[in-house]
């Protein structure tokens, strides 16, 4: 009796995962191949760890590979965080950017940059980002955790974003030198280019741990479809679930934001587009959201490199240009069904 | 041996005692109806049994153990709870909603086994929702949705089923259909505790009634002993037509009485 839908859903999910993985591989390779200098990948890739690399191999190793890895990791982290936050708050508008998580993670990193801590203690930048992210996730849960109506959620995000924005502006205002201010502004424009591979290497372990924590919440997120009370009577421990997501999102988003700066709307757009393909199940949305986030950001990065502009287009600008109107559209449609 | 035993339990919300002391024992095969006016503490009583609100006083035992001795997962396998209004936040397929009832039996990465599919199939059959399985739960009518949520609660296969106003806002046909499912559940050995506003349905289907008023048990026992004119007047402030001893049971509220003594 229940065999046909299960079979169909199962196949759709496998096709989706296979398709996303394929797209990820293709875009990743394209991302290595596209740029002002022509690099013959077939010749350059085997040489990549050689001790005596030529220019093409150096470009591949020092510029393109880190950039592609960064795009994939950032996209996957943001997509997954969006899917998890939406499942926890049962609202399609939850997203690290909308809720102010990215902004406070950025603030944490800005404070670290402002005081110049990262110059003598490299862990300070990712830790600052994570601390900022943790504060904002906890604040949003306190403000909107019980009743995640669209209005409460968006207002909580507005408040958190406003506080982060004000304090970031204060840091800029009081910056010790124009160069310090410039460094902060450059860093705040979400970007994948010229980011330190050392920072990525530092941020990667917490990002992976955070991702694992978030992925472990799938079943509980499914149960939350029935509301908090029914979920609890199905054996879901809400304090444990909230803690897993707060720490998981803070580690992963805080970690990646401390490297790339704020890249908005990936966590909003990706889960929304995928939800119909996974039959709206919160648990089955998690992994595809991570893959599709990586695909989306790799594609956006390629687009920003291929579109001819006077100065290089920053990826945070690209995602905001696409994501902000999408957010507006979601607010309108969501208000209709979830006031 | 009772399946569920409440000894002098009391619940406080924001420092004010809203329920208790309540003492109640429930055995397998029994449907116990909780009735009483709005705000009497009926939902709070169910939430206390389900472990959703802490007890201020008293002891609650499930089976042979105090509830504190059961883990949350074990308790989830023993007590299933159908909240009032039973929300669904995403447009999941009905089949997936019912399958959520098996979560207390599955470890995080375990997929449903034959035993789980059996429990789901039985719940689907009992509630007659087979034609709805592929529909999105958010597109269902109130009556359909109530049966789907009831199937979800039945799929847990817990010995104790708590249902909070499962027939509210249903038409008479759907009301009887839901009550029949609860009755079958009790006949197959489960214990059912159900909050009802409809006194006729409560009297017809429940083996015992517990009448709550202002958080306290004001009467308990067989429906015909409990629901008499004096109680309806005292608790609800109404006069009612009540069936005679040779008729099938019914209560029809007739007239509101001038003084309503039970209001605080």
Which features does this protein show?
heterodimer, A: 339 residues, mainly alpha, ABC transporter involved in vitamin B12 uptake, BtuC, globular, disordered N terminus, B: 264 residues, alpha/beta, Rossmann fold, six-stranded mixed β-sheet, four-stranded antiparallel β-sheet, 9 helices, 12 strands, 32% helix
Folded structure, characterized:
The complex is a heterodimer of chains A (339) and B (264). Chain A is mainly alpha-helical. In chain A, 76% of the residues lie in helices and 0% in strands. Chain A has one domain (66-337): ABC transporter involved in vitamin B12 uptake, BtuC (Orthogonal Bundle), CATH 1.10.3470. Chain A has 15 helices and no strands. Chain A is globular. The two termini of chain A are 36 Å apart. Chain B has a single domain, classed as P-loop containing nucleotide triphosphate hydrolases (Rossmann fold, 3-Layer(aba) Sandwich). Chain B has a six-stranded mixed sheet with strand order 6-7-8-3-9-10, with helices on both faces. Chain B is built from nine helices and twelve strands. Chain B has helices at residues 42-50, 72-78, 94-99, 114-127, 142-155, 172-187, 199-205, 223-226, 229-236; strands spanning 4-13, 16-26, 31-35, 57-62, 65-66, 79-82, 160-164, 191-195, 208-213, 216-221, 238-242, 251-256. The model of chain B has no long low-confidence stretch (mean pLDDT 92). Chain B has 264 residues and is α/β, with parallel strands linked by helices.
């Amino acid at each position: 009796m229940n065999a046909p839908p299960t079979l169909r859903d199962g196949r759709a999910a496998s096709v989706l995962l296979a398709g996303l993985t394929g797209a990820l591989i293709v875009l990743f390779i394209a991302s290595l191949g596209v740029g002002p200098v022509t690099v013959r990948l077939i010749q350059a890739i085997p040489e990549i760890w050689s001790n005596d690399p030529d220019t093409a191999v150096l470009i591949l190793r020092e510029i393109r590979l880190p950039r592609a890895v960064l795009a994939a990791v950032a996209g996957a982290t943001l997509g997954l965080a969006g899917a998890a936050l939406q499942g926890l708050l049962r609202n399609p508008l939850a997203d690290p950017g909308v809720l102010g998580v990215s902004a406070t993670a950025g603030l944490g990193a800005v404070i670290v940059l402002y005081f110049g801590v990262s110059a003598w203690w490299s862990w300070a930048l990712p830790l600052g980002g994570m601390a900022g992210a943790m504060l904002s996730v906890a604040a949003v849960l306190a403000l909107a955790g019980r009743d995640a109506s669209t209005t409460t959620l968006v207002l909580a995000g507005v408040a958190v974003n406003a506080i982060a924005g004000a304090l970031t502006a204060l840091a800029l205002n009081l910056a010790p030198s124009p160069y310090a201010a410039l460094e902060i502004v450059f860093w705040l424009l979400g970007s994948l280019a010229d980011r330190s591979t050392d920072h990525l290497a530092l941020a990667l372990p917490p990002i992976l741990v955070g991702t694992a924590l978030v992925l472990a919440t799938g079943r509980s997120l499914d149960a939350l479809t029935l509301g908090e009370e029914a979920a609890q009577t199905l054996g879901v421990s809400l304090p444990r679930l909230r803690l897993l997501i707060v720490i998981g999102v803070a580690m992963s988003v805080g970690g990646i934001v401390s490297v790339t700066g704020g890249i908005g709307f990936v966590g909003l757009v990706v889960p929304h587009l995928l939800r119909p393909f996974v039959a709206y199940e919160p648990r089955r949305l998690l992994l595809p959201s991570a893959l599709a986030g990586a695909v989306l950001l790799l594609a956006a990065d390629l687009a920003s490199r291929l579109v001819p502009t006077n100065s290089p287009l920053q990826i945070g600008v690209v995602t905001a240009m696409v994501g902000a109107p999408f957010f507006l559209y979601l607010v309108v449609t969501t208000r209709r069904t979830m006031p | 041996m009772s399946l569920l035993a409440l000894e002098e339990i009391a619940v406080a919300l924001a420092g004010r005692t809203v329920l208790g002391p309540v003492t109640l024992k429930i055995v397998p095969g029994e449907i116990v109806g909780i009735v009483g006016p709005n705000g009497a503490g009926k939902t709070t009583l169910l939430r206390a049994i389900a472990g959703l609100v802490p007890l201020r006083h008293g002891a609650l035992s499930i089976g042979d153990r105090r509830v504190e001795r059961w883990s949350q997962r074990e308790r989830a396998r023993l007590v299933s709870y159908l909240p009032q209004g039973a929300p669904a936040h995403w447009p999941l397929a009905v089949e997936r909603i019912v399958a959520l009832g098996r979560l207390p039996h599955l470890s995080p990465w375990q997929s449903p086994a034959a035993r789980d599919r059996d429990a789901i199939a039985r719940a689907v059959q009992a509630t007659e929702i087979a034609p709805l399985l592929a529909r999105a739960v958010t597109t269902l009518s109130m009556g359909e949705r109530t049966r789907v949520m009831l199937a979800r609660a039945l799929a847990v296969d817990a010995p104790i089923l708590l249902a909070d106003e499962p027939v509210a806002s249903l038409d008479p046909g759907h009301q009887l259909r839901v009550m029949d499912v609860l009755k079958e559940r009790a006949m197959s050995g489960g214990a059912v505790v159900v909050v009802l506003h409809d006194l006729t349905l409560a009297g017809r289907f429940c083996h015992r009634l517990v009448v709550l008023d202002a958080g306290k048990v004001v009467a308990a026992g067989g429906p015909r002993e409990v629901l008499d004119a004096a109680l309806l007047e005292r608790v609800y402030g109404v006069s009612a037509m009540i069936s005679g001893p040779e008729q099938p049971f019914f209560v029809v509220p007739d007239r509101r009485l001038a003084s309503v003594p039970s209001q605080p």
